[in-house]
Amino acid sequence: MSKIKKGDNVVVLAGRDKGKRGDVTRVFTDHVLVAGVNQVKKHQRPNPMKGEQGGIVSKEMPIHVSNVAIWNPVTKKADRIGSKSLADGRKVRFFKSNGELINA
Predict the structure, then answer these.
(1) Are the C-beta atoms of 41 and 58 separated by less than 8 Å?
(2) Three-state helix/strand/coil letters over the chain
(3) Is 26:63 a contact under the CB 8 Å cutoff?
(4) pLDDT tens digits for 4-15?
(5) Which residues pair with 33 in a beta bridge?
(6) pTM for the whole thing?
(7) Largest alpha-carbon pair distance within the chain?
(8) CA distance linking residue 57 with residue 103, whole number of Å
């Protein structure tokens, strides 16, 4: 079970965007794409077939999953995640600090 999932609110722990918070928009194998974090400038060529205009565009790049932690709204801090099985057989994630379930 993956610790970070799409839609989770995470905080960046390392890098130039340290301390920023955002929602996970896409999850790769060991990287995540976080909205508004790790923005880079890309020089884009125009593509008249697709109707795209050329120029310098700003886009988000993936950040390693070890550099983000899930945001715990109760404690207002970054938190670690654990997983456990409930009595009815479901696997759920929980916050390590207070034991509360995540989106149960």
Answers:
(1) yes
(2) CCCCCCCCEEEECCCCCCCCEEEEEEECCCEEEECCCCEEEEEECCECCCCECCEEEEEECCEEHHHEEEEECCCCEEECEEEEECCCCCEEEEECCCCCECCC
(3) no
(4) 999 999 999 999
(5) 26
(6) 0.82
(7) 58
(8) 35
CA distance 41 to 58: 5
Cα distance between residue 57 and residue 25, in whole Å: 19
Reported as a single tens digit per residue, the pLDDT across 51-88 is 999 999 999 999 999 999 999 999 999 999 999 999 99
**In Å, how far from its chain's centre is CA 70?**
8
Sign, Cα dihedral of 87, 89, 90, 95: positive
Q: Which residue is it, tokens 């905080």?
A: 11
pLDDT digits (tens, 9 = 90+) for 21-31: 999 999 999 99
Architecture of the domain whose range is 9-76: Roll (2.30)
Amino acid at site 31:
H
